[in-house]
Each structure stands twice: as C-alpha cells, then as structure tokens.
Structure to design on (540 residues):
C-alpha cells in the first residue's frame, strides 16, 4: 500500500487501482473491527460497574452512572440554554442531596447504643412560663462525634489457687496476659503506638507531645522499647505469614530504600515487599534488609520455589532463573525510560521522535491487555490464548523489531540505546506474559504495596538499625494485611497482642472468627466507656 501511495493514484494502472482498493477495504474493515472490539469491551465494563454499586462508590464514579448527579450533563445543558432558570441546567451537586453514603436506617442503627441529644426550647423557659404551648412537630437528625482518647490505669489482680490439703508445689495461676514481660503497657496502648507510627507515620517524639497531656509521663526511649517488644511478640505470626508465601503461585516483589539512624549516606537499608494471593486470600509481606542483595527472596520463598515472580529490571533478580523460578519483568519500567527521554525533548519535536513511537508501541500492548481483562477469561490458559491471538502478537513483534533497530542505529552510551538494551537484555523475561497466562504485564501490585511504607517513611524519617527495620516491617505487615482483608487494623493489632501470651502463631487475618472477635472486643470497650462516662456524670 505504501508503494501505491508514493506512486500516486493518477499514475496507477487499472490492476494497481483494483489492488489498492482491495487493500484499503481490508484496512478499513480491520480498523472497524478493532474499534468495535474496544467499544464492546467498554460497554461490558460500564454494564458491570452499573450492576455493582459498591465499586461505583469506591472509585467515586457516581456521576458517570447517575443522571441526577451528572455535573457534565448539567453544565452542557446550561451551555445550550444559558437563560434557563431550572436547577437542572447548573453544574455541581443538586440542592438537598446528601454528602455521605449512610442511609437513615444505618445511622439509626448506629445511634441506638448512644444517648440521644434533645433540643427542647420549652426547657429553656422558666418553669412558670411553660404552660400554654402545644407541640407542633418534631424533626430527627444525626451528628457524628469523636470521643476523646485518654490513657487510664487499671489495677491487675491475679489470684493463685492450691488444692485443699495438697502439700506439694502445684499451684493454679493464670499467666500474665501482658504481651511484653515486665511492661505495664496493655495491648490497646501498644496497638495505638504502632498504628500511629506505621499506619499514620507519626514519629514517636510527636506521640510523646500528646502523652504529656496524660497522667503518666512516657519518654520517647520508652516508646521505642515498647515498639520493639510489641513487634517481637507478633514475630511468630509474622513468620507464619512469611512461610505462607511459599505456597503462592505468583509473587510480586519490589524494594524501597530506608535510612537508618546511624547511616552515613542517604540510605542504609532496604524494605523488600512481597504481594501474592495464597489460598484465595490476598497477602502482603514487608521484610527489612541492610542492603539490596536479593538473597532475602530466597529466605522468604525458599530454594525449592518454582512459581512465578514479577519484578522490575533490577539485575539482582537474574539469579532466580537458575533456581527454577519464572521471571516476568515489569513493562512499565521499560517504557518509563523512553517517556523520560521524551520529557527532555522539545515539545515541537516530541511527536516525530523515535521514543514516541516506542511509547505508542508499548501502549498497544497495554491496550490489548485491558481488552483481554474486559473479556474476563476464567483461567490462565484462556488468558494466554487471547494474548497469543495473531493480531495481538503482531504488536509484540512490532515492538521488538523497533527496539532492535534503535539499538543498532544509536551509538553506545546514548540514552536511546540504553533504554532499548534495557528491554532487549532481558527480552525473554519481559515477554514471559506471551507464554504464561499467569504473568501480568507490570508490577503495579508490588508498587501499591510499597506505597504505604514510602508514605509513612516520609514522616518517621528513619529506623533505628536492623532492629528498628525489622520492627517497621513486622508492624507494616500486620497493618496492611488487615487493610486488604477488610479488618480494622488497630483492633487487629490489639487482638494479636492480646493473644501473644499464648504463643499462638495462627494466621489470624484469615480466620473466619477474627472479625467477630474484633467486633465483640469493640462492643465491650464501648460498654465500659459508657459506664465510665455515666459514672463521671453522676458524680458531677
């Protein structure tokens, strides 16, 4: 077809014109079919979202599915008829619409255990002026309050028994339930300390500022000791979680630097993150290493692991291919290098730059993968069959050909050649997804796992050596596993610490009764707090 265009239609013979017309018709049919595929996939996606209101709410997509709250539709109507006085023609939220997701029934249920607030204007009048009024109406609303958090001291009494008449040394005594031996901090306080630092990124010295308002003075050093003791108490559960990754079929791995307090340079340690699905349950693991050596992966997965790992282009992972592991490299890391080259190119030259062609070629692969996701293959084999469709494989071949030409045409040391060789050097690993339906195209799952630690690290700044790094890894593992399994993380930490005296290493996040136990624990707390408030009000 290119030869026909270069030659010019006026110069074509009748046979060439016929061949050109056939080629153009085939191209039009191919493009129309591709457009139809994309449209069908998009329609399936929209219909799926429309049937799942929870997904719509989670991603704040209500305005795309609700005509009553479609700001774009109202704004365009207003543009067509600027003199319209109707509220329907104005962009923004309609007057009277609620800005929360709770229904009145849900709020009523949540308010049952709390004393209602009554605003009665009659009660503000002197008693001799209250006669002669008739109640006209009564309105009901709701408000959200926060109960002040405070530290209280409880006396602990432990009774020892001995059988009547027994002269031996056998005694019946309940073991101490404290998670740290010789420490007066209860699980509720320890869980708050851990969650504030590793969940919200609040450094200990800032937590101490709040503790100064409490009756018991606690220093930063004491908080560090408590943190280490609490994480050590959860170590059996952490090791149990770590061992479970050896049963995973696919494991996403990434690493991020962390500074230790005695670091001479900017970094002096790394947090390796592992994300996988084991026995149908999502799991995340954080592991501290004093350096970037990937031997930590062997420690977690074991030498006999033969599953699939998803990583970036760091060559430290190359050794695992010799152990029988399949490696899928992240394509996002590969295309990112060409995007960085485009950023440094003048805007008027970006469109014709070869790096732009590479970005578009990678884009074809990601587009194909998105269409496959919408087709919803049930098994890796079905997904692989869709990936190996000749039209989609043609996009893969075109990308490899383009990168090979760039590697050949550009000089050694140039950014374009480095970026192309980054992919070609591990071509088989980058293209494993074309041979294994389990492999994703990118390592986004591991990067999402890294993000919470990276955000918290910006606040607590550094860890205290290897012990501090291990503590941060253990605490973050517990918190993030609670999050992704829809368990309230601070209550889960408290539950783990409350059971630590048993020496139990059960994989608690996925026990069926965990949520019920946490709910019961929260209700018991709320009951004791309500009694304390009632006692204070009565005494006052």
């Amino acid at each position: 077809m290119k030869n026909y265009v270069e030659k010019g239609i006026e110069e074509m013979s009748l046979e060439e014109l016929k061949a050109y017309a056939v080629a153009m018709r085939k191209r039009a049919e191919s493009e129309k079919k591709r457009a139809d595929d994309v449209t069908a996939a998009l329609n399936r996606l929209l219909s799926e979202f429309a049937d799942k209101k929870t997904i719509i709410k989670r991603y704040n997509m209500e305005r795309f599915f609700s005509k009553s709250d479609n700001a774009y539709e109202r704004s365009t109507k207003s543009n067509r008829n600027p003199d319209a006085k109707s509220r329907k023609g104005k962009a923004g939220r309609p007057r009277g619409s609620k800005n929360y997701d709770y229904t009145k029934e849900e709020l009523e249920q949540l308010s049952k255990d709390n004393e209602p607030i009554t605003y009665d204007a009659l009660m503000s009048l002197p008693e001799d002026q209250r006669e002669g009024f008739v109640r006209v109406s009564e309105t009901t609303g709701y408000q959200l309050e926060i109960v002040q958090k405070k530290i209280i001291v409880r006396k602990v009494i432990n009774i020892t028994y001995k059988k009547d008449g027994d002269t031996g040394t056998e005694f019946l005594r309940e073991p101490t339930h404290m998670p740290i031996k010789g420490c007066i901090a209860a699980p509720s306080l320890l869980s708050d300390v851990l969650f504030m630092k590793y969940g919200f990124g609040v450094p200990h010295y800032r937590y101490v500022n709040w503790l100064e308002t409490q009756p018991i003075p606690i220093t930063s050093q004491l908080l560090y000791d408590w943190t280490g003791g609490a994480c050590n108490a959860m170590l059996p559960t952490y090791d149990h979680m770590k061992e479970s990754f050896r049963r995973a079929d696919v494991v996403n791995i990434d690493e991020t630097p962390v500074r230790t307090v005695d670091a001479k340079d900017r970094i002096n340690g790394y947090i390796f993150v592992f994300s996988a699905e084991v026995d149908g349950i999502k799991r995340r693991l954080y592991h501290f290493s004093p350096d970037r050596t990937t031997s930590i992966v062997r420690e977690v997965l074991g030498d006999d692991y033969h599953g699939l790992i998803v990583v970036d282009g760091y060559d430290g992972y190359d050794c695992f291919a010799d152990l029988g592991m399949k490696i899928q490299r992240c394509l996002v890391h590969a295309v990112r290098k060409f995007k960085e080259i485009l950023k440094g190119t003048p805007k008027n030259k970006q469109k014709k730059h070869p790096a732009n062609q590479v970005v578009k070629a990678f884009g074809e692969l990601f587009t194909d993968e998105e269409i496959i996701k919408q087709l919803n293959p049930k098994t890796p084999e079905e997904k692989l069959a869709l990936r190996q469709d000749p039209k989609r494989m043609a996009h893969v071949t075109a990308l490899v050909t383009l990168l090979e030409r760039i590697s050949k045409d550009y000089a050694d040391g140039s950014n374009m050649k480095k970026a192309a060789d980054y992919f070609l050097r591990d071509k088989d690993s980058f293209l494993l997804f074309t041979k294994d339906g389990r492999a994703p195209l990118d390592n986004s799952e591991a990067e999402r796992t890294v993000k919470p630690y990276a955000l918290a690290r910006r606040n607590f700044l550094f860890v205290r050596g290897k012990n501090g790094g291990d503590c941060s890894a253990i605490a973050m593992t517990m918190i993030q596993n609670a999050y992704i399994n829809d368990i309230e993380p601070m209550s889960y930490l408290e539950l783990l610490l409350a059971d630590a005296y048993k020496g139990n290493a059960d994989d608690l996040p996925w026990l069926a009764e965990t949520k019920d136990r946490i709910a019961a624990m929260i209700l018991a707390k709320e009951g004791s707090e309500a009694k304390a408030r009632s006692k204070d009000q009565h005494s006052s």
